[in-house]
Amino acid sequence: MATSSTAGAEKVSVLFVCLGNICRSPMAEGVFRHLTNFGGDEQHPLIKDIDSCGTGAYHAGDKPDSRTLSVLEDNGLTDYKHKARRVKVPEDFERFDYVLAMDEDNFIDLRDSVKRAKKSGKLDNEVLQKVHMFGEFGGKDSREPIVDPWYDGGRKGFEVAYEQVLRMGKGLLQHIENEAKKSKSEL
C-alpha cells in the first residue's frame, strides 16, 4: 500500500491490452485489481481505475477464457467478472494514464491506432507516452512479452502467464508508488 510519502498524490488509471481480451489482459486486470484491493475498503490510494480490452473485437461480449478464470481462482481471485471489449480510440487513450500491451504485436497495434487518431486530429502527441509494454514493469527485460496461452492449448501456458502478470503487476505498482513519491518531492 501507499505510504505517507505518496498520500495526496494524483491517482492513475491503468488499461491492460492483449489481442482478444479473454486470456492475458483480463488476467492482468484481475491480478492488478487484487494487488491494489480495487473496489475494496482498503483500495490503494494511487489507483483511480483499472480495465482491460483487446486490439481485436473477436470475442467482444465474451467472458474470459475458462482457463484464465481457473488459474485466477486457484490463486485466490474468485470474484473477478469481465466481458471482453475492443480498445476504444480515442476514448481509452484519453481516459487511461497507462496503456499496457501484453506483447510486441499488441504494442504495434496500439501505436498504429494512436498514429491514425493523431492524423485525424483526435489525439495529441503526448498520448504515445502512455503506451508501454507490460514487461517494462518487472519483466526479465523491458520487452518481455506475455506469450498468448490461447495458442499453447494447455493450462501450463495460463500458469506461466499468471506468474508473469503477478510479477509485472507488482513492478507496475512499485513504479506508480515511486513516481508518486518523486512528484511529491518535486513540489
From TrEMBL:
SMART domains: LMWPc. Keywords: Hydrolase, Protein phosphatase. Residues 12-175 form the Phosphotyrosine protein phosphatase I domain. The active site is at C18, R24, D148. One of its GO terms (molecular function) is protein tyrosine phosphatase activity. It comes from the Eukaryota. Belongs to the low molecular weight phosphotyrosine protein phosphatase family. PANTHER family: LOW MOLECULAR WEIGHT PHOSPHOTYROSINE PROTEIN PHOSPHATASE, LOW MOLECULAR WEIGHT PROTEIN TYROSINE PHOSPHATASE. This is Low molecular weight phosphotyrosine protein phosphatase.
